[in-house]
Design goal:
The protein is an alpha+beta fold. It has seven helices and four strands. Helix 3 packs across helix 4 (58-67) and helix 6 packs parallel to helix 7. Belongs to the complex I 24 kDa subunit family.
Length: 159
């Protein structure tokens, strides 16, 4: 859920999330996931709040956020298109599809189209290996995709 809030509200909301989840074993990933679910990305303003709440350095939190590909540092487009990059999908032509999609959208990985409609992200397995290549848009998975399928998915997202 990508919501727009004032910057002061970000710290308050992040503090509430941290306070609620910090007692979990290994709380940083659940905290980061919840923050991204709320804001659509992990705002830079959240890092010191997380660090303080978990008694960590800001560098430690930054390291986790930048290590995992799934966390965004800026708001995504209205739709997020993820293309599988795992070996099974690669063996079934995902690399060619990815290049075609990047050309169609005019963006690279983690980019958002100028109209703000679509953010393109790699994902390293959707669990659809028997239906390779696969893609996901806004949480809906598609197996055995080809160029025509992706053109249709992109056209629908732009409507």
């Amino acid at each position: 859920m990508n919501i727009h809030v004032a910057k002061g509200d970000i710290s308050d909301q992040v503090r509430d999330i941290v306070d609620r989840l910090k007692t979990l074993e290994g709380p940083m990933l659940p905290i980061l996931h919840e923050i991204q679910d709320v804001f659509g990305y992990v705002p830079q303003e959240a890092l010191p709040v997380i660090a303080h709440g978990l008694n960590l350095s800001r560098a430690e939190v930054h390291g986790v956020v930048t290590f995992y590909h799934d966390y965004r540092s800026h708001p995504p487009g209205r739709h997020v298109l993820k293309l599988c990059r795992a070996e099974s999908c690669q063996s079934m032509g995902a690399d060619r599809l990815a290049e075609r999609v990047k050309a169609m959208l005019g963006i690279d990985w983690h980019g958002t189209t100028p109209d703000g409609a679509i953010t393109l992200e790699p994902v390293f397995c959707l669990g659809l290996c028997s239906c390779s290549p696969s893609a996901m848009i806004d949480g809906e998975v598609h197996g055995r995709v080809d160029v025509a399928d992706l053109e249709e998915i992109i056209a629908e997202a732009r409507r």
